[in-house]
Structures
1.
Amino acid sequence: MSVTTPTRIRVGQGSAGDPAATDAYDVVVGADLLGELPGLVAGARRVLVVSSEGLRDAGERARAVLADAGFEALLTCVPDAEAGKTAQVAASCWSELGQAGFTRSDAVVGVGGGAVTDLAGFVAATWLRGVRVVQVPTTLLAMVDAAVGGKTGINTAEGKNLVGSFHPPAGVLCDLATLATLPVRDLMAGLAEVTKTGFIADPRILELVEGDPAAATAWDSPVLRELVERSVAVKARVVTADLKESSLREILNYGHTLAHAIEQVERFTWRHGDAVSVGLVYAAELGRLAGRTPAELVDRHRAVQGLLGLPLAYRGDRWDALLTAMRRDKKTRGDLLRFVVLEDVGRPVRLEGPDEADLVEAYRRVSA
Ligand SMILES: NC(=O)c1ccc[n+]([C@@H]2O[C@H](COP(=O)([O-])OP(=O)(O)OC[C@H]3O[C@@H](n4cnc5c(N)ncnc54)[C@H](O)[C@@H]3O)[C@@H](O)[C@H]2O)c1
């Protein structure tokens, strides 16, 4: 593949004179990156690699690299996807750490999709009130979103991501070659987050997709590599400025208000990226109705996501359930629904408490 030297993108601010005293870390994008793992956990004696059943080989490769470097390296494989993001699974990881005598200076490595990196981050955040975690994301969504930024969490019976903590990783290794085995539908779903990033902050992302949509879905293309690097760079900038989602970080939720509601109404049988794709078109239509978003920009949402084969519409008979779900969203404050809308590419603004008539009309426009 065309990947040569890895690209390093810094997240967080290093303090002059003592960079180790900060939460800053690098997201590395490239291939064959496992050789960087030992350096990232230096000082630890024991390392627990958390991976999932379907990714046992990838987890074992990471464990072997650490064992070869002299660490006492253990591997645990949790159930795939959301089945691994539970309190019971977290508790089984804590037991492993306890039985192996993990101390404050030991470390956890997450190898997998966003579900695994969320769980591994959460386990690391809570063991002895926080040990180091290194993330090795293996899906596009985890590379550009879940593994970057330090949000960790698990689900409860009442909903997704209700329990969690902010716990920045010590490093993130995005090995593009791991995407070779990712089903193309999952790759495409990750691209919904990539286009979101383009709309909120980086027009070049949109041009890359428009210029060669087929290359955007090929794991070994330089186009996909640039899309990953640019998306990570935007997320890095935003979370560096706003670690805990007080204000700027909100722009990353562009398209997500409706997307989360669709996921809930569909009981999480929709891929997150597919729901985000519809949510982006919805937010664009809402912005247009509120007099903020130009019509051509709304059309561009449909064009770009259409080129990637992402869904642009959702069934038209679910408004009451969607509205109820949006009102319950974690990010709703009081009774006011909050959206991010665009005045232009790269110019997101907050739209608070939009007219109910606009909400309904925007839904009509994204109804299949
Ligand atoms: N912490 C955050 O900021 C953040 C942001 C976005 C999403 N998330 C979370 O991320 C999760 C979704 O992540 P996801 O889309 O990566 O899904 P996922 O982790 O559920 O992975 C999807 C499926 O792909 C499999 N898989 C992973 N890598 C593979 C590979 N290289 N080859 C073949 N199969 C592979 C997994 O085993 C799983 O079955 C959700 O739980 C969501 O809440 C967190």
2.
Amino acid sequence: MKRRKFIKRGALALGGLSLATGFYTWQVEPFWLEFVKLKMSIPNLPSHFEGKILMQISDMHVGNRFDRQYIIDSFKKAQAFNPDFVVYTGDFVSYESSEQLTQLQEVFQHVVKGKLGTVGILGNHDYGKNWSEEEVAHQITDILTQKGITMLRNEQVTFEDLNFIGLDDYWGTNFNPQQVMSKIDTQKANLVLCHNPDVADEPIWNQYEGWILSGHTHGGQCKPPFLPPLMLPVKNKQYSAGKIILDDKRTLYINRALGHLWQVRFNVRPEITIFELSKS
Ligand SMILES: [Fe+2]
């Protein structure tokens, strides 16, 4: 009898633990935003930029898969840091239909902007179905431009003395990094925005030395403790999240995403990154 009771209690405890973990993974962690702070040293950075704040926001995935108010609330918290620069590294929407364009307009009424500059690039989800709808990419670019974001599609822009190089998405219809990488001035203070970290392994870098800010992986969204995430949408499985020192004096940073593709996260909290600039 005692043994049977023990087994029954154990099964109940296990059931309760599974329910609690399920609830946490579904309702708590996907909305438990972390502001990750780290230093970013940039070659040739003018000394008056020392200590300035550059904020990275990535993979918002505005759409019908989770409550958009979470993104708006996160934007409000982010703006309170009063960043000097804000960069958006793609996947603004989870595109299903033109409804997402209206939702994007609504959410980006609360756009986080930098005092000195606000820059964005597109991700694969900003290209609509099968990442192949060029017209969707144009419409999203137009909306974000109207909201005050300088959208870079294989282009570069300099705000004061900091030069932002923005690559269009690797899986989209306009991946043409040579268009901008052939024109970079290595004497400038440069920073590359590139949605998909796999591009770091492509032969396109033309002597570039410095940081590459990416997103795309969401850190895998669920990660067993001490093990790599089970699902990563990249060829190079080293590229899951965080800071990775590459060869040729490049540093890759992969943001874990603000939004999510599906409303589940475990051991991979959503992130907005706050870089403090310094001269290298
Ligand atoms: Fe994404």
3.
Amino acid sequence: MTNPKSLSHESGNLLIFKKTINMRTKKHFETAAIRTQSKRSHFGEHATPMYLTSSFIFDDAEDMRASFAEEKEKNLYSRFSNPNTTEFVDKIVEMEGAESGYAFATGMAAIFSTFGALLSSGDHIVSARSVFGSTHTLFTKYLPKWNIETTYFKVNEVDKIEGLIQPNTKILYAETPTNPAVDILDLELLGKIAKKHNLLLIIDNCFATPYLQKPIEYGADVVVHSATKLLDGQGRVLGGVAVGKKELIREIYLFSRNTGPALSPFNAWVLSKSLETLAIRVEKHCENALKVAEYLESNEKVNWVKYPFLKSHPQYKVAKKQMKLGGNIVAFEIKGGIEAGRKFLNHIEMCSLSANLGDTRTIVTHPASTTHSKLSEKDRFEVSITDGLVRISVGLEHIEDIVNDLKQALKA
Ligand SMILES: Cc1ncc(COP(=O)(O)O)c(C=O)c1O
């Protein structure tokens, strides 16, 4: 847990190295990602070690009492906090411009725990229909068990959002860009609606990362992530994080500390190391993705391409307003529907057929025949998944090798 009560990053477990950074100047994103670091031990290690310990010790009975009473800011037990998870969370807090945060074992644990902590029986959510599959299952199968209902709006019908708000609506929820169809929601608009109606705005910022987009600047109260994707960026560990307003994170922390979805210190160590290179990785991912999108637009076997920074994207202007670059996900529709999608996948040579995204390795998926095959055609179309839709998570291989693989698979 990152210091839910006080926001000072110089107290507690963390120490920003004053020898190398003048703390009176504002830290840049890259610097915060590298120089936000756990306090060094007496060994004087340069990089943060792993704290693979389930619990921590106390000097005496009074030290233990005061620590449990939260009169002292100390690590007690790694389900509550651990120096590695604190370092990881504090980096995300800095990057997103948040006040506080808590780290989870997975992105879904972050999303579920956020709802679990902030909602009560009888509350209502208004959400974009295009949300990650498991989030949709949470809305439609599990939250109703606790009498929490969700009403959806379509991504191209944001003008209808206000009409869906009920007296018991508590949360406005969206992902942007969306998975898998890379639609864009206008964060400024969502922020204004949430403020006007006194709703909590919760944004899944997984596809953009805080390097490209900061929902808190538009009024988001809580930002959630699957750290499994670009935050790790190398397809190694699962993780999740929720950051936002101090008092909301306090609720999320208390819920999580008692229900147990905490991130392991090992995964936190891996993720914190990954964040040191997030900016440079995401820059290159985006450069490659734009080139892939431009190539696909010129291929005659492709009906259309959707990439936030292509002028042809329906929400291009909104993407340009709120994102620094277009992200690493490209969606396109191959001519010939489901069969053509399957054939394309079968002819891929280098890229991976895998369920993950945001990896160094380029990954291609065909949602209509795999992840979304159980949905009716109508339901799939509602979330912009047409029969021939292919999603590419563009990696960091040489751009010519990525494009050549797509080219030969399209030709086959
Ligand atoms: C947008 C989005 N949110 C949340 C998740 C869930 O993350 P995790 O798999 O880490 O639980 C995913 C996973 O693909 C995702 O794409």
